Amino acid sequence: MIDVKELTENPDLFRTSQRNREADESLVDQIIAADASRRAAIAEFESLRAEQNVFSKKVGKASGEEKQALLAEVKELSARVKEASAASDAAQAEQERLVRMMPNLVLDGAPAGGEDDYTVVKTVGTPRDFSAEGFEPRDHLELGELLGAIDMERGAKVSGSRFYFLKGVGARLEIALMNMALDQAVSYGFIPVITPTLVRPETMQGTGFDVEHDDEIYRLERDNLYLVGTSEVALAGYHADEILDLSGGPIRYAGWSTCYRREAGSAGKDTRGIIRVHQFNKLEMFIYAPVEEAEAEHAKLLAWEEEMLAKVELPYRVIDTAAGDLGMSAARKFDCEAWVPTQERYRELTSTSNCTTFQARRLNIRERQVDAEGKKGGTRAVATLNGTLATTRWIVAMLEHHQNADGSVNVPAALRPYLGGMEVLPVL
Fold first, then answer.
1. Catalytic residue among 231, 257, 351, 353
2. With 70 as the cut, is the pLDDT of residue 108 above it?
3. pTM, two decimal places
4. 8, 79, 313, 411: which one has the fewest Cβ atoms less than 10 Å from its Cβ?
5. 348 included as an active-site residue
6. Is residue 261 annotated as a catalytic residue, yes or no?
7. Which pLDDT tens digit goes with each residue over 311-339?
8. Which tens digits make up the pLDDT trace of 203-233?
9. Is 276 annotated as catalytic?
């Protein structure tokens, strides 16, 4: 969550952030008013408690009629203290409710506006000109069927729409891609983690997801558990309520998990193939870092994503996501979008977000501060960051971009060792 003290001291900063997100600016004033009410309620409660303590001492020393009179006053005062306590609790709950509605403070540099207001940071590589090569490109599903790699029909038979089977070279291709991504992550100091895919509501909420109103999330009502849409959720909750030692630098995890999304509201969108599905695999980078190092870590995450895209030899672009499309937790986000030939447009393959201290405050994750002389001080919230290194959707762009006229698909050189040296995925 946001820092209420920072908000009350710099309300215009947060109003600007909300305006850039195209969100409700009045929420800032509601939080300020709630904080004032909370402070007043606490002051009233503490004042009455102090008065109650004084009366209790008087009662102990009094006797006879005086004591009876004091007892009557103490009884009345106790009722007032109880009311003040309830009012204080209510004020605290109201402030917390409002604060949890407030998205993260957008960082300087992020474009203002909605989904279509992103800015293109750079474009890398050139899309293939299939007309110059003399053939019409097939889409990834047709290619996947020719290769015996994707089976949507049986996926729907077994589980319903937007489910699929990866088999044969399709299954091998995904495992190879994920292993190559994992090897890269480990080379940069990431600790591999296979994470739970079911989490408690407090973990989901702590990461910044609205479990009550987010239709994208699958919930197991009987167990009150949620299926994650990214291993970021489990990795964010991994150190909840802990004090971390970041004196040796950021802590980096690479989470490998299956992910689930309901894709609510996507009826009619990307119904063909495996672009928008309910279940997929993903390797997610997750970092805990001191606040001062968060921006530099964000740049590293983007560079590592681009390194993976270069390994699979895909043309892509990097966009700086607009504030209104950041989601609740991110303060800034960059997406890498690969060119999909049959759609003649760029589609998102990866994203990387700097969530500053937003998630850590919700999950109570702190670090011990140490001065220049090594003396330990108080604690403060850490920064959290995340970035996707590989996911099932990559197969879409890889099949289409590297296809041959006969439907076979060339394997990028960097990926061949993970496929037993295979250079071409053959048509069955």
1. 351
2. yes
3. 0.90
4. 79
5. yes
6. yes
7. 999 999 999 999 999 999 999 999 999 99
8. 999 999 888 777 889 999 999 999 999 999 9
9. yes
Identify the active-site residue in 261, 332, 362, 366.
261
Distance separating alpha carbons of residues 198 and 214, to the nearest angstrom:
16
- Could you confirm whether 393 is annotated as catalytic? yes
Q: What token pair was written down for 149?
A: 């790699």
Please confirm, yes or no, whether 200 is among the known catalytic residues. Answer: no
Active-site residue, selected from the candidate residues 263, 293, 307, 348: 348
Residue 218 has, within 13 A of its CA and on its CB side, a CA count of 14
Residue of 328, 308, 67, 317 whose CA lies nearest to 217: 328
